[in-house]
Structures are given as structure tokens and as C-alpha cells.
Amino acid sequence: MENSAQLKEIVRQKYSEIALQNKEDDQSSCCNSACCSPEVNNIMSDDYSKLEGYTADADLGLGCGLPTQFANIKKGDTVIDLGSGAGNDCFIARAETGEDGEVIGIDFTLAMIDKARANAQKLGYKNVEFRRGDIEIMPVSDNTADVVVSNCVLNLVPGKDAVFKEIFRVLKSGGHFSISDIVLIGDLPEALREYAEMYAGCVAGAIQKETYLELIKTNGFSNIILQKEKRINIPDDALKKYLNEEKLICFKSGDKGIFSITVYAEKPGACCNTDCCP
User: With bands split at pLDDT 50, 70 and 90, how would you rate the model's confidence at 56?
Assistant: First the structure.
């Protein structure tokens, strides 16, 4: 398995390719990286099109949930979107926070940043900005955001613990996040985890669900709520690229699998009196 720097470069290259493709090419496979099946179209993503702020040109079909729908964004909030891509979640967040709020998208792929900025310019949005940076070391000051959202991004990041530490740092006291991501229940067959294409576009960077939730807890967050969970069903023709018939049957018949979850958690607020803190 590649080291963290190599894996990040794989992801950067793959998502640069996606940013430069047209939407039809992006959606030609289940994981949007030409690694899976022609039978399906975006098996991981949910339908955004009915949400206020939805922008078709910014929807590359790369998500695995609708975190903004669950994020409890209020008028005037400052929202940060991790792995903002072409900007769709940012534009939906802007519809929630209004003109008095601020939305900051962070992505480490320059082609995605360029695409998102072009979309924002076309829409005439002055309170949505896109910053190029690594979400393990965010280009954002402490205590900036009321809300952090992210859609199917942390599963691509080797340093998930570092990301949760950064989320805690950039959230204001009492702020919260809503994140949609891919997790595992039970171990995936090793063959599925060894392919760089699966890592960059699908699930090989995902970790166990319980480990994921424990990372949130150990980084100081409270009121952790699993807002949504759904099983991801990868078609047989895709799985057969990585599994023989016997392993395919075993994988499909067991309880193990790939799941999309949306998780909410809060950064604890300030002490309510002088006796509650050390």
C-alpha cells in the first residue's frame, strides 16, 4: 500500500481529471473515476436537484449524501465545506446562510478550485469563496465557522484524525458539523483495497464505522448523532474486477459491507459558570 503522500497524489490526479471532464464522463461509472460499472450511475450519491441553491454545473456526482440538508445552517452563519469540488454543497449552504452569511470551500485540487470559482462568478455570489488547501492543515483561522460540512471526502484522506482535529479548531465554541462519508462494517476483501482506482474514486480509503465514530469522540466532540445510514450496493460486474466468484458470493451474503453515513457532532460550548472549568 502506498504511503500517505502517494495516496494524496493519486486522489489529486484523479480529481483533477474529473474536474476537467464533462459531467456525462464523470457519471459514466459508479465511483466517478472510470473504475467501476457501466450498469449504474452514481450509486453512492443522493439527489440534490430539489434543494434550494442546487447548481447543475457544480454537481459532479461525487457525493454520498446530503450533509447540508441535515446541517441546521442558520441565516448569517459562516459555513466551511471540506473538499468543495465544483462548489455544489457551498452553493446549497449559501441558500441556507443567506447574503449575510459566509461560505468557504476548501479543496486541494487546483482544477476543482478553478471550476468552483468560475461557477461562483457566473452566479454572482460575493459571499462564497474557495481556498486551495489540505483539509488536514486548513487555511482557516481558529474559531471561524458556525458549521462545517463535507460530502464523501474524508474517506479519501489518509489522516482522518488530523482532519477531525482541524474541524474542532476551526469551529466556534458551540459550533457543529454534518458530514456524509463512506465507512465499512466488517473487513473488505483485500483485493478491493489494493487498487489505487478504488482508493481515489470509491471506498478503499474508508475505515470501520465504529473507528470513525470513535475518532469523532476522542477529538472532543459531543452530541454525536448518526443522522442517516444506507448500504452501498456495488454491481456484480464491478466487483468481478476484484473478486473471484467464490469471494463475490461470500462478500454479498455476509453482514460486512460499504455504507454511506451522515454524522452530526458539536464542539462543546463555553462554560456556563466559573465553577465548570478547571
Answer: confident
Rg (CA), the chain: 18
Q: Determine the angle formed by the axes of helices 209-218 and 160-170, rounding to 10 degrees.
A: 40
Q: How far apart are CA 239 and CA 244, in angstroms?
A: 9
pTM of the model: 0.83
- Using the Cα atoms of residue 138, residue 9, residue 177 and residue 163 in order, give the sign of their dihedral: negative
- 57-72: b (≥16 Cβ within 10 Å) or e: ebbbbbbbbbbbbbbe
Percentage of residues in the chain with pLDDT exceeding 70? Answer: 78
**Looking at domain 4-266, what is its CATH homologous superfamily?**
Vaccinia Virus protein VP39 (3.40.50.150)
What's the Cα-to-Cα distance from 49 to each of 81, 92, 170, 179, rounded to whole Å?
19, 10, 30, 19
Contact 128, 94 (CB under 8 A): yes
Place of cell 473488505: 188
Among 144, 126, 232, 122, residue whose Cα is nearest residue 188 = 232
Crossing angle of helices 110-123 and 88-97, in 10° steps, is 40
Q: Distance (Å, rounded) from C-alpha 150 to C-alpha 130?
A: 14
